[in-house]
Design goal:
This protein has 325 residues and is an alpha+beta fold. It has helices at 3-16, 57-131, 140-165, 177-186, 208-225, 279-290, and strands spanning 20-25, 31-40, 47-55, 173-176, 194-206, 227-228, 237-245, 248-253, 294-299, 305-310, 315-321. Strands 4, 5, 6, 7, 8, 9, 10 and 11 form an eight-stranded mixed β-sheet that branches.
């Protein structure tokens, strides 16, 4: 680009007293951008000359391409980061909802499984009584037992729902464990069973309602599955011994026992070698876990099963409560 062209562009800007723009090919054959702007004398404000600026578009286009590439790459990274963050946050926010739905499904499954047997017993008893000329009286004991079992099932299912839905929101208070176990033994229905106790005075920090349900389930399991085999026509009876040592409640029976390989299955849902419905010991295990303890089962020397409920560390007094029958 010649100096004459630049001088002509400057003269045009001076004559017009305004900015002038133009495009001219440079020595490489590419288009160059020209801009001429006049300047004035500070005192007279007369036009004294012009400044001509030459711009190289190739450098500007390269900068533009680099900027566009940076914007595209940055936008892609931000989009990927936003997607990953959204997925992570949505997963964390929805996880409690999924867990709650799964807990509700387990509670409904437990309820359907547990209620089936006592309801069937009550219905069959009523149907038989309807055709029995003796009336309903001979069938009332069976219906009463089914009703009691139905009450226990509802209480167990509601307790399981509380543990699963509330995340084991325990109402912890200092509790005399030996007295609670003694009361649970005294509340047992009369029958051919024999219950003996060996209770050390013990204070634990626990939820009284949950512990009472756990102890009641242990006793119910021992009375139903721990019956000593007897030849007919003698009725089999359960011989159960209940112990409290520190923060542990142990219930031993003299029943037929089970194989060592089947012991872990005692605390699984719907697993009951003795023919029960199976939620009882599973619920006891959940209550023990909620208190930081555990539920274990072992074969008892001489026959039978020994089940231990541990509620975690507690303060045991050294006094001893004599055994009761």
């Amino acid at each position: 680009m010649g100096e004459a062209r630049l001088a002509a562009l400057a003269r045009t800007a001076m004559d017009r007293d305004d900015t002038v723009r133009a495009e001219e090919p440079d020595s490489r054959g590419t288009t160059a951008y020209l801009l001429a702007r006049p300047f004035h004398h500070d005192e007279t404000q007369e036009v004294r000359g012009a400044v001509v600026v030459v711009g190289d578009p190739s450098q500007w286009m390269a900068e533009h391409r680099r900027l566009a590439a940076s914007v595209l790459v940055g936008a892609g990274l931000l989009t990927a980061l936003a997607a990953a963050t959204g997925h992570l946050l949505s997963g964390r926010s929805l996880r409690p909802a999924w867990q709650s739905l799964e807990a509700q499904e387990r509670v409904l499954a437990d309820a359907a499984h547990e209620l089936r047997t006592p309801v069937a017993v009550m219905r069959s008893s009523v149907d038989i009584a309807g055709t029995d000329p003796r009336g309903l009286d001979p069938h009332l004991p069976r219906i009463r037992r089914a009703t009691e079992r139905l009450t226990d099932v509802v209480e167990n299912v509601l307790t399981r729902g509380r543990l699963q839905a509330a995340g084991a929101d325990l109402r912890l208070v200092p509790l005399r464990l030996d007295q609670l176990v003694e009361q649970a033994c005294e509340e047992l229905a009369s029958g051919p069973h024999v219950v003996t106790t060996s209770l050390d005075a013990s204070v634990v920090t626990a939820d009284p309602a949950l512990v009472r349900i756990a102890v009641r389930n242990l006793l119910d399991n021992a009375l139903r599955h721990g019956r000593t085999p007897a030849p007919a026509p003698a009725a089999a009876r359960a011989e159960v011994h209940v112990m409290v040592r520190g923060a542990t409640v142990a219930v031993a029976d003299r029943g037929p026992g089970i194989a060592a390989a089947d012991l872990p299955g005692l605390t699984e849902r719907f697993r009951s070698p003795g023919g029960g419905t199976g939620i009882g010991l599973s619920l006891v295990r959940e209550i023990a876990a909620a208190h930081g303890g555990d539920l274990t089962a072992d074969l008892r020397p001489g026959g039978g099963t020994l089940v231990r409920l541990s509620l975690g560390p507690g303060e045991a007094e050294r006094t001893h409560t004599p055994g009761r029958t």
